[in-house]
Design a protein that fits this description.
The structure is a single chain. Strands 5, 6, 7, 13, 14, 15, 16, 17 and 18 form a nine-stranded mixed β-sheet that branches. Strands 1, 2, 9, 10, 11, 12, 19 and 20 form an eight-stranded mixed β-sheet that branches. This protein has helices spanning 16-27, 63-79, 100-112, 146-160, 205-211, 271-276, 278-284, 331-342, and strands at 8-12, 31-35, 51-52, 86-87, 90-94, 117-119, 133-138, 142-143, 163-165, 168-176, 179-186, 189-199, 217-228, 236-238, 245-250, 255-259, 262-263, 291-304, 313-316, 321-324. The chain has a domain at 1-50 and 145-216 and 305-356: FAD/NAD(P)-binding domain. Helix 1 (16-27) packs parallel to helix 4 and helix 1 packs across helix 8. It is an alpha+beta fold and 356 residues long.
Length: 356
Protein backbone atom coordinates (compact mmCIF):
# COMPACT_ATOMS: atom_id res chain seq x y z
CA UNK A 1 0.00 0.00 0.00
CA UNK A 2 2.91 2.39 -0.57
CA UNK A 3 0.82 4.60 -2.86
CA UNK A 4 -1.88 4.98 -0.23
CA UNK A 5 -2.20 7.98 2.08
CA UNK A 6 -2.33 5.60 5.02
CA UNK A 7 -1.98 2.01 6.17
CA UNK A 8 -4.64 2.41 8.86
CA UNK A 9 -8.13 3.87 8.53
CA UNK A 10 -10.28 5.10 11.41
CA UNK A 11 -13.91 5.15 10.27
CA UNK A 12 -16.20 7.01 12.67
CA UNK A 13 -19.82 5.95 12.36
CA UNK A 14 -21.08 2.47 11.44
CA UNK A 15 -23.97 3.49 9.24
CA UNK A 16 -24.22 2.45 5.60
CA UNK A 17 -21.53 4.91 4.44
CA UNK A 18 -19.08 3.97 7.16
CA UNK A 19 -19.64 0.25 6.72
CA UNK A 20 -19.17 0.27 2.95
CA UNK A 21 -16.08 2.48 3.28
CA UNK A 22 -14.59 0.25 5.96
CA UNK A 23 -15.29 -2.98 4.05
CA UNK A 24 -13.76 -1.64 0.82
CA UNK A 25 -10.68 -0.39 2.67
CA UNK A 26 -10.19 -3.73 4.44
CA UNK A 27 -10.54 -5.66 1.19
CA UNK A 28 -7.93 -3.27 -0.26
CA UNK A 29 -5.41 -4.28 2.39
CA UNK A 30 -5.70 -1.54 4.99
CA UNK A 31 -6.02 -1.99 8.73
CA UNK A 32 -9.43 -0.60 9.64
CA UNK A 33 -11.01 0.56 12.89
CA UNK A 34 -14.77 1.13 12.77
CA UNK A 35 -16.20 3.22 15.62
CA UNK A 36 -19.88 3.29 16.56
CA UNK A 37 -21.41 5.26 19.44
CA UNK A 38 -24.18 2.71 20.07
CA UNK A 39 -23.97 -0.99 20.85
CA UNK A 40 -25.03 -1.45 17.21
CA UNK A 41 -25.78 0.92 14.31
CA UNK A 42 -28.67 3.16 15.34
CA UNK A 43 -28.61 6.28 13.16
CA UNK A 44 -30.36 7.20 9.93
CA UNK A 45 -29.16 4.04 8.18
CA UNK A 46 -31.44 1.89 10.34
CA UNK A 47 -34.20 4.46 10.97
CA UNK A 48 -35.70 4.22 7.48
CA UNK A 49 -38.36 1.98 6.00
CA UNK A 50 -35.85 0.58 3.48
CA UNK A 51 -35.89 1.37 -0.25
CA UNK A 52 -32.91 1.25 -2.62
CA UNK A 53 -34.18 3.55 -5.35
CA UNK A 54 -33.88 2.66 -9.02
CA UNK A 55 -33.69 6.36 -9.80
CA UNK A 56 -37.30 6.57 -10.96
CA UNK A 57 -38.20 8.80 -8.04
CA UNK A 58 -35.86 11.51 -9.32
CA UNK A 59 -36.42 11.08 -13.06
CA UNK A 60 -37.77 14.23 -14.63
CA UNK A 61 -36.68 16.46 -11.76
CA UNK A 62 -33.00 15.51 -11.34
CA UNK A 63 -31.89 13.21 -14.15
CA UNK A 64 -28.24 13.23 -13.09
CA UNK A 65 -29.20 11.87 -9.68
CA UNK A 66 -31.59 9.39 -11.31
CA UNK A 67 -28.74 8.04 -13.47
CA UNK A 68 -26.48 7.64 -10.45
CA UNK A 69 -29.21 5.79 -8.53
CA UNK A 70 -29.85 3.46 -11.45
CA UNK A 71 -26.17 2.52 -11.73
CA UNK A 72 -26.08 1.74 -8.01
CA UNK A 73 -29.39 -0.14 -8.26
CA UNK A 74 -27.87 -2.44 -10.88
CA UNK A 75 -24.97 -3.21 -8.54
CA UNK A 76 -27.18 -3.90 -5.51
CA UNK A 77 -29.50 -6.15 -7.50
CA UNK A 78 -26.46 -8.34 -8.19
CA UNK A 79 -25.48 -8.40 -4.50
CA UNK A 80 -28.71 -9.04 -2.63
CA UNK A 81 -30.13 -12.54 -2.82
CA UNK A 82 -33.88 -12.97 -3.27
CA UNK A 83 -34.42 -13.77 0.41
CA UNK A 84 -32.76 -10.48 1.43
CA UNK A 85 -34.86 -8.14 -0.70
CA UNK A 86 -38.11 -7.65 -2.58
CA UNK A 87 -38.09 -6.13 -6.05
CA UNK A 88 -40.98 -4.12 -7.40
CA UNK A 89 -43.48 -1.40 -6.72
CA UNK A 90 -45.83 0.98 -8.47
CA UNK A 91 -45.65 4.63 -9.37
CA UNK A 92 -49.16 6.04 -9.50
CA UNK A 93 -50.53 9.23 -11.03
CA UNK A 94 -53.53 10.65 -9.24
CA UNK A 95 -56.34 12.06 -11.36
CA UNK A 96 -56.17 15.47 -9.69
CA UNK A 97 -52.52 15.98 -10.69
CA UNK A 98 -51.44 17.66 -13.97
CA UNK A 99 -50.01 15.51 -16.79
CA UNK A 100 -46.98 17.65 -17.69
CA UNK A 101 -44.67 16.00 -15.17
CA UNK A 102 -45.83 12.52 -16.20
CA UNK A 103 -44.60 13.12 -19.75
CA UNK A 104 -41.23 14.40 -18.53
CA UNK A 105 -40.95 11.46 -16.11
CA UNK A 106 -41.65 8.84 -18.76
CA UNK A 107 -39.20 10.42 -21.22
CA UNK A 108 -36.52 10.45 -18.53
CA UNK A 109 -37.10 6.78 -17.65
CA UNK A 110 -36.69 5.86 -21.31
CA UNK A 111 -33.54 7.93 -21.84
CA UNK A 112 -31.86 6.63 -18.67
CA UNK A 113 -32.93 3.03 -19.26
CA UNK A 114 -34.83 2.54 -16.00
CA UNK A 115 -37.24 -0.35 -16.67
CA UNK A 116 -40.97 0.27 -16.28
CA UNK A 117 -44.29 -0.95 -17.63
CA UNK A 118 -47.79 0.50 -17.53
CA UNK A 119 -50.30 -1.75 -15.75
CA UNK A 120 -54.08 -1.55 -16.08
CA UNK A 121 -55.24 -2.35 -12.55
CA UNK A 122 -52.76 -4.01 -10.16
CA UNK A 123 -53.93 -5.58 -6.90
CA UNK A 124 -52.88 -3.00 -4.32
CA UNK A 125 -55.29 -3.78 -1.51
CA UNK A 126 -58.97 -3.21 -0.82
CA UNK A 127 -58.36 0.03 1.07
CA UNK A 128 -56.86 1.87 -1.91
CA UNK A 129 -59.27 4.23 -3.67
CA UNK A 130 -58.68 3.19 -7.28
CA UNK A 131 -61.22 5.74 -8.50
CA UNK A 132 -58.73 8.52 -7.76
CA UNK A 133 -55.84 6.88 -9.61
CA UNK A 134 -55.28 7.62 -13.29
CA UNK A 135 -52.16 5.58 -14.18
CA UNK A 136 -50.10 2.72 -12.72
CA UNK A 137 -46.46 2.04 -13.64
CA UNK A 138 -44.52 -0.97 -12.40
CA UNK A 139 -40.88 -0.11 -11.57
CA UNK A 140 -38.40 -2.56 -9.96
CA UNK A 141 -37.47 -0.72 -6.77
CA UNK A 142 -35.53 -2.74 -4.18
CA UNK A 143 -37.05 -3.05 -0.72
CA UNK A 144 -34.97 -4.19 2.25
CA UNK A 145 -35.18 -4.39 6.01
CA UNK A 146 -32.74 -1.57 6.74
CA UNK A 147 -31.99 -2.52 10.34
CA UNK A 148 -31.41 -6.19 9.50
CA UNK A 149 -29.34 -5.26 6.44
CA UNK A 150 -27.06 -2.87 8.35
CA UNK A 151 -26.46 -5.40 11.10
CA UNK A 152 -25.62 -8.02 8.49
CA UNK A 153 -23.00 -5.63 7.09
CA UNK A 154 -21.51 -5.38 10.59
CA UNK A 155 -21.15 -9.17 10.57
CA UNK A 156 -19.39 -8.97 7.19
CA UNK A 157 -17.03 -6.34 8.58
CA UNK A 158 -16.17 -8.44 11.63
CA UNK A 159 -15.67 -11.56 9.52
CA UNK A 160 -13.18 -9.66 7.37
CA UNK A 161 -11.18 -8.69 10.46
CA UNK A 162 -12.24 -5.05 10.77
CA UNK A 163 -11.73 -3.79 14.31
CA UNK A 164 -15.34 -2.97 15.17
CA UNK A 165 -15.61 -0.85 18.31
CA UNK A 166 -19.22 -0.30 19.47
CA UNK A 167 -20.03 1.96 22.42
CA UNK A 168 -17.09 4.17 21.53
CA UNK A 169 -16.67 7.94 21.69
CA UNK A 170 -13.78 10.22 20.81
CA UNK A 171 -12.06 11.85 23.75
CA UNK A 172 -9.47 13.80 21.78
CA UNK A 173 -7.67 13.80 18.44
CA UNK A 174 -4.16 15.13 17.80
CA UNK A 175 -2.25 15.18 14.55
CA UNK A 176 1.36 14.04 14.50
CA UNK A 177 3.36 13.95 11.24
CA UNK A 178 0.23 13.84 9.03
CA UNK A 179 -1.30 11.03 11.09
CA UNK A 180 -3.92 11.39 13.79
CA UNK A 181 -3.58 9.94 17.24
CA UNK A 182 -7.15 9.42 18.41
CA UNK A 183 -7.99 8.69 22.03
CA UNK A 184 -11.34 6.98 22.41
CA UNK A 185 -13.49 5.66 25.21
CA UNK A 186 -14.69 2.13 24.50
CA UNK A 187 -17.16 1.21 27.19
CA UNK A 188 -15.17 1.70 30.39
CA UNK A 189 -11.79 1.51 28.68
CA UNK A 190 -9.57 4.14 27.07
CA UNK A 191 -7.81 3.26 23.81
CA UNK A 192 -5.46 5.20 21.53
CA UNK A 193 -5.29 4.43 17.82
CA UNK A 194 -3.35 6.02 14.98
CA UNK A 195 -4.53 6.42 11.43
CA UNK A 196 -6.39 8.44 8.80
CA UNK A 197 -9.91 9.44 9.96
CA UNK A 198 -13.06 9.15 7.84
CA UNK A 199 -15.99 10.87 9.57
CA UNK A 200 -19.25 9.19 8.49
CA UNK A 201 -21.34 9.80 11.60
CA UNK A 202 -24.45 11.31 9.98
CA UNK A 203 -26.07 14.15 11.89
CA UNK A 204 -23.28 13.83 14.47
CA UNK A 205 -20.68 14.83 11.85
CA UNK A 206 -20.35 18.45 13.10
CA UNK A 207 -19.81 17.34 16.71
CA UNK A 208 -17.21 14.76 15.69
CA UNK A 209 -15.48 17.15 13.27
CA UNK A 210 -14.91 19.62 16.13
CA UNK A 211 -12.82 16.97 17.88
CA UNK A 212 -10.48 17.21 14.88
CA UNK A 213 -10.47 21.02 14.85
CA UNK A 214 -12.90 21.34 11.93
CA UNK A 215 -15.89 23.69 12.12
CA UNK A 216 -18.65 23.13 9.57
CA UNK A 217 -21.46 25.27 8.18
CA UNK A 218 -24.47 22.99 8.10
CA UNK A 219 -28.20 22.48 8.54
CA UNK A 220 -29.95 19.41 9.93
CA UNK A 221 -33.32 18.17 8.73
CA UNK A 222 -35.43 15.14 9.42
CA UNK A 223 -37.75 12.95 7.45
CA UNK A 224 -40.54 11.18 9.29
CA UNK A 225 -41.82 7.75 8.35
CA UNK A 226 -45.39 7.86 9.63
CA UNK A 227 -46.97 4.46 10.30
CA UNK A 228 -50.64 4.27 9.37
CA UNK A 229 -53.11 1.53 10.24
CA UNK A 230 -53.69 0.07 6.80
CA UNK A 231 -52.56 -2.78 4.62
CA UNK A 232 -51.23 -2.33 1.11
CA UNK A 233 -49.80 -5.09 -1.06
CA UNK A 234 -47.07 -3.17 -2.85
CA UNK A 235 -44.69 -0.25 -2.52
CA UNK A 236 -46.38 2.86 -3.90
CA UNK A 237 -44.68 6.01 -5.14
CA UNK A 238 -46.09 9.05 -6.85
CA UNK A 239 -45.50 10.51 -10.28
CA UNK A 240 -44.69 14.05 -9.24
CA UNK A 241 -41.68 16.08 -8.27
CA UNK A 242 -40.57 14.91 -4.79
CA UNK A 243 -42.71 16.95 -2.44
CA UNK A 244 -45.16 16.62 0.44
CA UNK A 245 -45.40 12.85 0.19
CA UNK A 246 -43.43 10.44 -1.97
CA UNK A 247 -43.67 6.88 -0.70
CA UNK A 248 -46.10 4.40 0.80
CA UNK A 249 -44.14 1.42 2.10
CA UNK A 250 -45.82 -1.78 3.32
CA UNK A 251 -44.64 -3.27 6.61
CA UNK A 252 -45.74 -5.98 9.01
CA UNK A 253 -47.53 -3.42 11.19
CA UNK A 254 -49.21 -1.27 8.54
CA UNK A 255 -47.83 1.10 5.92
CA UNK A 256 -45.31 3.91 6.23
CA UNK A 257 -45.95 7.17 4.43
CA UNK A 258 -42.88 9.35 4.09
CA UNK A 259 -43.32 13.10 3.72
CA UNK A 260 -40.55 15.41 2.57
CA UNK A 261 -37.82 16.77 4.82
CA UNK A 262 -38.74 19.25 7.55
CA UNK A 263 -36.60 21.32 9.96
CA UNK A 264 -34.87 19.22 12.59
CA UNK A 265 -36.95 18.68 15.71
CA UNK A 266 -34.74 16.26 17.64
CA UNK A 267 -36.40 13.37 15.80
CA UNK A 268 -39.80 14.13 17.32
CA UNK A 269 -42.73 14.32 14.92
CA UNK A 270 -44.71 17.56 14.80
CA UNK A 271 -48.38 18.31 14.30
CA UNK A 272 -47.46 20.12 11.08
CA UNK A 273 -45.99 16.91 9.68
CA UNK A 274 -49.13 14.96 10.53
CA UNK A 275 -51.32 17.61 8.97
CA UNK A 276 -49.20 17.67 5.81
CA UNK A 277 -50.22 14.11 4.90
CA UNK A 278 -53.91 14.48 5.66
CA UNK A 279 -54.99 15.54 2.15
CA UNK A 280 -52.74 12.90 0.57
CA UNK A 281 -54.36 10.14 2.59
CA UNK A 282 -57.82 11.29 1.53
CA UNK A 283 -56.81 11.00 -2.12
CA UNK A 284 -55.35 7.52 -1.81
CA UNK A 285 -57.54 5.63 0.65
CA UNK A 286 -61.28 4.98 0.70
CA UNK A 287 -61.27 5.77 4.42
CA UNK A 288 -58.44 7.85 5.82
CA UNK A 289 -56.41 5.54 8.10
CA UNK A 290 -55.33 6.48 11.59
CA UNK A 291 -51.72 7.20 12.52
CA UNK A 292 -50.43 4.51 14.89
CA UNK A 293 -46.71 5.28 15.07
CA UNK A 294 -43.69 6.74 13.36
CA UNK A 295 -39.95 6.70 13.07
CA UNK A 296 -37.71 9.56 12.03
CA UNK A 297 -34.30 9.84 10.40
CA UNK A 298 -32.01 12.85 10.55
CA UNK A 299 -30.32 14.28 7.46
CA UNK A 300 -27.55 16.82 7.23
CA UNK A 301 -26.74 19.44 4.60
CA UNK A 302 -23.18 20.77 4.84
CA UNK A 303 -22.48 24.09 3.13
CA UNK A 304 -18.82 24.47 4.00
CA UNK A 305 -16.39 23.00 3.23
CA UNK A 306 -17.80 22.30 -0.22
CA UNK A 307 -18.31 18.75 -1.39
CA UNK A 308 -15.97 17.31 -4.00
CA UNK A 309 -18.68 14.90 -5.19
CA UNK A 310 -21.95 16.06 -6.75
CA UNK A 311 -25.07 14.43 -5.37
CA UNK A 312 -23.44 13.11 -2.19
CA UNK A 313 -21.17 14.82 0.31
CA UNK A 314 -17.42 14.26 0.55
CA UNK A 315 -14.94 16.83 1.89
CA UNK A 316 -11.26 16.00 1.46
CA UNK A 317 -9.36 17.99 4.10
CA UNK A 318 -5.93 16.43 3.40
CA UNK A 319 -5.59 14.79 6.81
CA UNK A 320 -9.17 13.56 7.13
CA UNK A 321 -12.30 12.98 5.04
CA UNK A 322 -15.92 13.78 5.88
CA UNK A 323 -18.55 11.74 4.01
CA UNK A 324 -22.33 11.46 3.83
CA UNK A 325 -24.48 9.42 1.41
CA UNK A 326 -27.63 11.30 0.45
CA UNK A 327 -29.15 8.11 -0.91
CA UNK A 328 -28.90 4.77 0.90
CA UNK A 329 -28.05 2.93 -2.30
CA UNK A 330 -25.18 5.29 -3.14
CA UNK A 331 -22.95 4.21 -0.26
CA UNK A 332 -20.83 2.10 -2.63
CA UNK A 333 -20.34 5.12 -4.89
CA UNK A 334 -19.18 7.21 -1.92
CA UNK A 335 -16.84 4.46 -0.68
CA UNK A 336 -15.28 4.24 -4.15
CA UNK A 337 -14.71 7.99 -4.32
CA UNK A 338 -13.04 7.81 -0.90
CA UNK A 339 -10.85 5.01 -2.27
CA UNK A 340 -9.71 7.32 -5.08
CA UNK A 341 -8.76 10.01 -2.59
CA UNK A 342 -6.85 7.51 -0.45
CA UNK A 343 -5.13 5.87 -3.40
CA UNK A 344 -6.49 2.39 -2.64
CA UNK A 345 -8.37 -0.17 -4.72
CA UNK A 346 -12.09 -0.33 -5.44
CA UNK A 347 -12.76 -3.95 -4.67
CA UNK A 348 -16.35 -4.33 -3.49
CA UNK A 349 -17.78 -7.37 -5.24
CA UNK A 350 -21.02 -9.31 -4.72
CA UNK A 351 -19.14 -12.28 -3.23
CA UNK A 352 -17.81 -10.05 -0.44
CA UNK A 353 -21.40 -9.79 0.88
CA UNK A 354 -22.16 -13.40 1.65
CA UNK A 355 -24.76 -12.63 4.30
CA UNK A 356 -25.51 -15.36 6.80
Amino acid sequence: MKDSKTDTLIVIGAGITGLMTAINAKLSGLEVYLLEKGNKPSGSSVRIAGVLHSGARFAGSDNDLAKVCFEEWKWWISVLSKDKRKVGGYFIKLKNEPTEYLESWLNSLKSIGIPFSEIDSPELGKEINANNIDKYYFVPEIQINASFFTNELVKVAETLGINYLPLSSIQKAEINEDEYEVTINVGNQVKMIKGFPIITSGIDIPEVAKKFGVNLEYSIYQGSHILINTNINELLEFVHKPGTYDLLIPSESGAYITPTLVPYNRLIITEEELESISSALKNIFINKPEVIGYMTAGRISINSPKSVLKGDYIANLNNLIIAWSNNYACSRRVSYYIAEILGIKKVLTPKAFNFS
